[in-house]
Amino acid sequence: MxxxxxIILNRNLPKPTDKLYEHLQKYxxxxxxxxxxxxxxxxxxxxxxxxxxxxEPEILKNGLRYSRGMNYALLNLYNENKWKKYDGFxxxxxxTEFNPLKTIAPLISILDNHKTIGILSPCSKTWGExxxxxxxxxxxxxxxxxxxxxxxxQFIESIMETHEPxxxxxxxxxxxxxxxxxxxxxxxxxxxxxxxxxxxxxxFAEENESHLLEKSDLIRTEGFDENLKLYVEEGNRWMxxxxxxxxxxxxxxxxKHFYDQFFKLHPELNKYKV
Length: 274
Fold this sequence. Notes:
Layout: E1 4-10, H1 14-28, E2 32-39, E3 50-54, H2 57-62, H3 65-79, E4 88-93, E5 96-98, H4 104-113, E6 117-123, E7 138-140, E8 148-152, H5 153-159, H6 182-192, E9 196-207, H7 210-214, H8 216-219, H9 224-243, H10 248-265
Parallel strand pairs: 1-2, 1-4, 2-3, 6-9
Antiparallel strand pairs: 4-8, 5-9, 6-8, 7-9
Helix pairs in contact: 6-10
């Protein structure tokens, strides 16, 4: 029985989406059900494994990006009465690449052995964090920048919108369209609710940036440099309106405060602190 629902977000790049789907089918088919969300793709650029096709006019024009897209897919699972089937939800974009090894099984094992972990991220070979993961291959962090997260269902249920849930608010704040510091906001919510966020070197995940660098016109988004500029400018406006913070450093310190409080409550877990 599959314990994890994997959600792949696609917009007009069916080849890498299909490749990623088939990789997970090859190595993890007994551990995960895989769902593909088409976030405003053109009809002739759909993955052959498409589960849901979001094609409302605004989505066709602007796409969904990570926060709105994952909210959209998670809400579909919830409304289709599939939610309780799974212990966790693995949220990935179609530019994610894994080693030719099992991905889901090692991550599930970590959740089973670390009962407080609500957010679990594979490491990247390019991250400095991997230098902190030698004696212990899994540690708890207060900052993780990734597009591949395994979220424990009970953690999501502790923070999700239940009054009027929609693709703008279920788990991630959809107002923050490009997702600036959305991972920090999520991690803060974890620690303040007595969950933790971890990185592990049991699994590695890499982001293939060539899709954004070379195919931005096909994805119908800005080029890499312009996208980065808007990511920061729009994100800073969102952060100041919502939190009153004037810099990303203030947001990081906000998250780290709850991280430090978590370990005061759980001194038995100090060996996992960085």
